[in-house]
Queue: 2 jobs
Job 1
Amino acid sequence: MNDNPAEHEMLLGAHKSISGGIDKAADRAADLDTNAMQIFSQNVRSWSTRELEEDEVSRFKKKRIEFGIEYAVIHTSYLLNLATPKDDLWEKSKKGLIEEIDRAEKLGVPAINTHIGAHTGSGLDKGLERLVDALKEVEKSEVFRNSGVVVLLENTAGSGTTLGSHFSELGLVLDQLAEEERFGVCVDTCHGYAAGYDFSTAEGLDEALAEFDSDVGLDRLKLIHLNDSIGELGSEKDRHAHIGRGNIGDTGFAAVVNNEYLRELPFILETPKEELGGKEADRVNLDRVMGLRK
């Protein structure tokens, strides 16, 4: 790791692959000289769960310390739908969320981030009710009560019947949970922009944060996913672009990473994985973000 504190005054990293073992994600984060990272803890497109091996867990924890990775978060499976009206999927989703909490606790990861799901035709109110009931049951689980893992609910772009595109929906859910300190919000800039929050200007960001503070509370905002948007403002299209190469642009991201309420939060990139100008895209995007930081 680079020992220059000025290089890492912000918590900044990217989503990294766990191919070859979860500890390999720490190697990949270290290769980018980052102090934060996001991972999957398992195959997120399958309901089958591979048990974590003790040696793998030990290596992961050791490497985080060795490489100076101060912040880590686990992104849950894409299969989870905590708002579904289908009982079998609802039960599997609750179980899946509890399993992710357990895996995060074992790995020493302080938070998990989850998509909250879609009502798939039952209606917004029914979907939100279903989501709240699911999270209340998770709260009561032994795994949750015996861990310190924080569960973050991610905003959405608003496509289809997904919940959480409006900050008010997230606030409504969080207000009904008993363990307030154990839940929070992750704001994805691409999702927010696609949902109609104009993160492309400082003025638009201020308006969005004022609405968030009113409907949710800025103290509940725990993580930022930094993604530019291919879709236009309010398009409801969840299509991530490289930093500064989409409709949010450098001006918007400069406002985000320097905002007085956001600058101390962890920032995680979920931008496309490819090469840009012969360099790894994560390297290019991270450098661009660091260049915008004042």
Job 2
Amino acid sequence: MMFDSHVAALLDASVALVNVLTDGTKGGKPYAAPRGDDLPGAVTAALPSTAGGRIGPEEAAYLSGTAQRMRTVFEAVDDGRIDDAARTVNELLRSTGARPQLDLVAGEPWQVHFRGASDSLDVGWSAGCATALALAIGSDLVGRLGICQASRCDRVFVDSSRNAVRQFCSTACQSRVKAAAFRARQAERR
């Protein structure tokens, strides 16, 4: 069993928001999240094109706060602290007023989507992402939430591979680790 398409899209959005809006390391280098005037554009780029509309500064700031909290969920899962992850997700669910709703999408059957207490874009996306994380943590798919295992990279990912063996946020980090291992083996042979 894997995530349905709507939950997978929300998890992808969660990953994008966390990776774009939180400081840390990326690909072996320090990463500073966008701030100030750069924040709305970064949030707009992180969300799928279906998000609709341009993100304003207040909405961007709200989603940045959501991303900070979601990062703690990924970190807790990575550390095996599932109870902490669940508590944080429950706080997100409560603060956004997350609720399911059936929506009819043109040319498709009814679909369960997740909304927030208000129909604003920032609260809606936060509620949807929180619900998707809740569905992952509340299932046997919790191990699919991960943090890159490459040195000097702390970007997050959702493992959608068939055999659940993904360890890296990107092929660039995977290649960097493999190249470093190859160089280390070559140095040992000398």
